[in-house]
Amino acid sequence: MKLLLTCLTAVFLSLSVAAQDPGSAMPNAIFYNRDNSPFSTYNIPKGKKSLIIFFDATCEHCQKVVAQISKRTKELKNVNIYMISQDEYRSIDYFMTNFGKPLLQQKNVKVVQDRDHVFIMAFHPKQYPAIYLYGQDKNLVFTSSNQNDVPKFFKLINP
């Protein structure tokens, strides 16, 4: 009985974890560059807004969102963009080439792999795509998984 109660408590606590609240600090997490070198969110600089997009290469909503965002790259020149996926680089490359090609040509865009599957535990996304906008202080400004919220991000990036 004690084991059952412990298990139920653990399940309840894990289900009660919510997505980040606006104003919360960017979590520290380590992802990997193409050359397998680590990239930490700790290294994301302050002083510039950061847009983090967590995607799955086979997700239709992710494809639509990234295609929408990539059509407006000129409006994103003052924000650092981090594209993060748990997929293999082969799938990430296909996704970016087909849905985010204009983003690949931007110096302020970094594509990294979450091969250790730490994003979900650190950022608590509700579904794909998960988009997070952090302010210059690395505190959360807005987050959404709704493809209809893309214009809201642009309003917050370019007030």
TrEMBL record:
Range of residues in the leader sequence: 1-19
Residue stretches making up the Thioredoxin domain: 20-159
InterPro entries (UniProt xref): AhpC/TSA, Thioredoxin-like_sf, Thioredoxin_CS, Thioredoxin_domain
Keywords: Redox-active center, Signal
Pfam families registered for this protein in UniProt: AhpC-TSA
One Gene Ontology molecular-function label: oxidoreductase activity
Name of the protein in its database record: Thioredoxin-related protein
Source organism of this protein record: Pedobacter cryoconitis
